[in-house]
Amino acid sequence: MPLVVPGINNNASSNDPKSEWMNKLVGKKLSDGTSDSTNFARKDLPKEHRVVEEGSMLTQDFKQDRSVMPLTLA
């Protein structure tokens, strides 16, 4: 699991939504259960989201309020 330390090994400001989500998600597994130190619960993702597995086909539609979570399979 990669080590992510907010403010040390990422350059984005703390007010940046992308940086906030990176700090919450990087190095964790997506689960249907609850969030903890190694898992992040699907229910805690934004209402408008899609999880994209590595190598998956995507549509090119654009929704400004949707978050796209790229998933890397390890």
- The H-and-E topology, N to C, reads as HEEEE
CA-atom Rg in angstroms? 13 Å
What's the shape?
Answer: globular
- State the helix count: 1
Strand order of the largest sheet: 1-2
Helix content: 10-25%
Q: Tally of extended strands?
A: 4
Largest sheet: 2 strands, parallel
Q: Give the mean pLDDT.
A: 76
> Strand pairing plus helix content: what structural class?
alpha/beta
Stretches where pLDDT falls below 50 for ≥5 residues? none
β content, as a range? Answer: 15-25%
Task: Measure the end-to-end span.
Answer: 9 Å
Give a brief outline of the structure.
With 74 residues, the chain is α/β, with parallel strands linked by helices. The protein has 1 helix and 4 strands, in the order H-E-E-E-E.
Can you characterise this structure?
With 74 residues, the protein is of the alpha/beta class. Helix content is 12%, strand content 22%. It has one helix at residues 17-25, and strands spanning 29-31, 39-41, 49-53, 67-71. It has a two-stranded parallel sheet with strand order 1-2. A two-stranded parallel sheet has the order 3-4. The N and C termini lie close together (9 Å). The mean pLDDT is 76.
